[in-house]
Amino acid sequence: MNIQSVIAGFGGQGILFAGKLLVYTGLLKDKQVSWLPSYGPEMRGGTANCGVVISDTPVGSPIVVNPNLLVAMNLPSLDKFEQAVVPSGSIFIDNSLISRKSTREDCKVFYIPATNMAIENSLPGLANMIIMGKMFKELGEFTPDDVKAALEKTVPPSKTALIEKNLNAISLGYNYI
Q: Which of 104, 4, 99 is nearest to 61 (CA)?
């Protein structure tokens, strides 16, 4: 396994949390992992992204230059990272917020209306988990039980009441066709 991923969007979309979920999922499967967050000084509303590496071998650098997986939750993120994705990589786009199509014909591209799905299912703020659910399904490396165990480790004790909503959002994305 060698996942080199970038998860990107606006601050406040749960970008860093989504990265933590991915890295914990790998960690619980005894993989070598790295999580490197990056965000602007304004945080909420500014840009945010994180690089996540999950590998069978030791991670040499936490910096992801050419990801094989991109989650883009807004247009500036797609514009910034789309061309860096390696050929045959995967790109996951929240097409509720991004109206343009990917220009990459050498990658697998998935359009998920994650923000609209979150609103329609009374899960405001969980578009990140919806798109991550689709990503987990398409990756095929982790089971729903793996993701649930990682979520339980990732959610802080003060917010355990939100685990069920997060699982519902992940399930919506996992089952999205």
A: 4
